[in-house]
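Figure 6 in text form: structure in, sequence out.
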């Protein structure tokens, strides 16, 4: 598979369907890789889009350096990808923690090369409860506790997290077990230290970054999401992103791109047609 090299020398694995269509860049969630979009990519490619999915540093088949696991660096990695592939008029899709890269991209680089943004099950705009953000999901010690669990009991933590990823409290597992098992297989490709460290950046306050988003924006979220509760995240996005519209997947878990693939794909295709 091809790689690009970031400005600070990290090789990122990516896939690219090619073609002359509008670029759609997929930024994966924790603890997965670009491979987590394998079932969705052909749908977008068949509709005429050039689909690029990459593995974040520390995850999948990309390099696993000792540092750089903050949103400034990760957003700069995303910029390196857009620059090296010379993408213009791209749509950035940030899934779960990938929403942080997309939001911070706008905060650091504006809408250069970008025509639209999509956030799916995203952590944006601000998950950490603080004095000036009482509507977040949990305080900082909650994120620290999760990071400690991921570091100290990696296998059990990944097993539990991936189970939640595809489940709702009311309906249980929303995908076949082979989908869950594949997700766990991808998750285990992550570097243990990188995986634990990146949990902490889910607490990043991205509200100012979101305010800088000046392109049409689609926000997708399953209302049964256990990993990232919709009311604490995506439901708040229209407060900060002027052109954001929210698509709620009824009964959808965090991994709605697999469990509710047709609805997820079609919501994105309908949005792309408007650009």
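Output sequence:
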């Amino acid at each position: 598979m091809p790689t690009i090299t970031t400005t600070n020398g990290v090789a990122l694995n990516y896939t690219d369907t090619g073609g002359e269509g509008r670029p759609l860049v997929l930024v994966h969630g924790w603890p997965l890789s670009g491979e987590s979009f394998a079932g969705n990519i052909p749908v977008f490619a068949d509709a005429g889009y050039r689909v690029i999915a990459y593995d974040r540093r520390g995850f999948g088949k990309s390099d696993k350096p000792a540092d750089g696991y903050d949103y400034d660096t990760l957003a700069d990695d995303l910029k390196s990808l857009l620059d090296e592939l010379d993408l213009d008029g791209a749509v950035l899709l940030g899934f779960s923690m990938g929403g942080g890269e997309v939001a911070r991209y706008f905060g650091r680089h504006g809408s250069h090369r970008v025509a639209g943004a999509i956030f799916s099950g995203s952590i944006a705009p601000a998950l950490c409860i603080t004095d000036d953000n009482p509507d977040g999901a949990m305080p900082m010690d909650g994120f620290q506790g999760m990071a400690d669990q991921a570091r100290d009991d990696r296998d059990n933590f990944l097993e539990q997290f991936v189970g939640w990823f595809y489940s709702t409290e009311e309906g249980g597992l929303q995908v076949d077990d082979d989908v869950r098992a594949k997700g766990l297989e991808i998750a285990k490709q992550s570097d243990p230290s990188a995986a634990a460290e990146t949990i902490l950046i889910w607490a990043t306050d991205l509200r100012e970054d979101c305010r800088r988003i000046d392109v049409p924006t689609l926000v997708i979220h399953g209302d049964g999401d256990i990993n990232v509760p919709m009311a604490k995240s995506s439901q708040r996005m229209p407060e900060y992103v002027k052109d954001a519209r929210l698509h709620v997947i009824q009964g959808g878990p965090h991994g709605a791109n697999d469990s509710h693939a047709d609805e997820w794909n079609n919501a994105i295709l309908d949005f792309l047609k408007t650009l």
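Caption detail: Residues 130 and 139 are 7 Å apart (CA to CA).
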